[in-house]
Amino acid sequence: MHIEQRELPQAGADNPVLAIRAAVKRFGARTALDGLDLTLRAGEVFALLGPNGAGKTTTINLILGFLKPDAGAVQVCGIEAGSDPVGARGHVAYIPEQVALYPGLSGIENLRYFATLAGLDLSVDASRRLLTEAGLPEEAHGRPAASYSKGMRQKVGIAVALARQARLLLLDEPTSGLDPSAAADFSVTVRHAAERGTAVLMATHDLYRVREMADRVGVLSRGRIVEDIDPKTLDHVALEHLYIERLAEITA
Known about the structure:
It is a single chain. The protein is an alpha/beta fold. The chain has a domain at about 20-100 and about 165-250: P-loop containing nucleotide triphosphate hydrolases (Rossmann fold, 3-Layer(aba) Sandwich), CATH 3.40.50. The protein has helices at about 55-65, 85-90, 105-115, 125-135, 150-165, 180-195, 205-215, 235-250, and strands at about 20-25, 30-40, 45-50, 70-75, 80, 90-95, 170, 200-205, 215-220, 225-230. A hairpin with a 2-residue loop joins strand 1 (about 20-25) and strand 2. It starts with 17 loop residues before the first strand and ends with a helix. Belongs to the ABC transporter superfamily.
């Protein structure tokens, strides 16, 4: 988990946290992104749904500046990720499917270590408050991370994002491998982060949880969003049917 700390500009109606405009990315003869458009504002949770190969990982890598678009623009808090990846990443916290912590260190020690890398000096009390806000049980704060479940490791990652006051939180398959109770708990944690003003983009296959977590759902297919909907307007069955129908239309 690599963290950088910078002074963050305010994001508002005229300055979205994330702005992807007509992004194109090709790998040889294969087009991974084909004119992708996506805007994400402070406090908004956007779920990016799509089958393997739809372009979710490529999208994340463009936002992090690990790849440059062949056309179009990817901006984080007004900073072009392709030309200034370090500046863009200074506003981003990325939590992969498997969060890597130092197993011999406790949750508090991991949090303070990653905060130090970001130029922050967190006290033990401040660390406890952040871990509690991220949903990590108090009894686990001082335990070695080797004893943590996937969900607990993710919460330490959320605490790092809160400590940094990251404007954009990227989640890659956050509920994969979690039992129903842990997934529900993590949904609450994500909503709390959004309530603080953090924009959240999550790549996921979990149709059930997106109704609880997301304000918007985008169906990604062949490198472009083919549906952008409010998940609250559909029940779980209707959302699943819409997802399957839209993919079938594209592949027919």
